[in-house]
Amino acid sequence: MAAGPAAASGFSRVADCDLCRAARMTPWYHEDEICWIAECDICQVPMVVWRHHGTAPPADHVAHMRARLREVAAARLGEFWVDDHMRNIPDHYHAHARPDGGFFGHHARRR
């Protein structure tokens, strides 16, 4: 189910995918034509999501997303590591910024 700019780029979006829908359920920190970054509703850490459906974004999109995630995570968490293992939604690329020495952001010191 491709639509709009996604179809023009050769990438697609899937109607029943939670990440493709990009519902604003938590605070958002960034958005552009490649990705959006919001607080993960489970982990409470910044999470970058590719705007297109699939698990293998082009290398330039991955570099762009990681750079934007680094900016947000440094401001929100300080020290962090990037976790791009897609556990709950394995068919749509996303990555979490985890607090250094931790996994969830529930008790992370916010800047």
Explain the overall architecture.
The chain is an alpha+beta fold and about 110 residues long. It has one domain: HIT family, subunit A. It has helices at about 5-10, 20, 60-75; strands at about 30, 35-40, 45-50, 80-85, 95-100. A hairpin with a 3-residue loop joins strand 1 and strand 2. The chain is globular. The chain starts with a helix and ends in a 12-residue tail after the last strand.
β-strand number: 5
Which percent band covers the strand fraction? 15-25%
Q: How far apart lie the N and C ends? A: 40 Å
Could you list the spans in which at least 5 consecutive residues all have pLDDT below 50?
1-8
List keywords for this structure.
5 strands; disordered N terminus; 111 residues; HIT family, subunit A; alpha+beta; 26% helix; single chain
Give the SSE map.
Elements: H1 4-9, H2 18-21, E1 28-31, E2 35-39, E3 46-50, H3 59-77, E4 80-83, E5 94-99
Antiparallel strand pairs: 1-2, 2-3, 3-5, 4-5
Can you describe this structure in just a few lines?
The chain has 111 residues and is of the alpha+beta class. The chain has helices spanning 4-9, 18-21, 59-77; strands at residues 28-31, 35-39, 46-50, 80-83, 94-99.
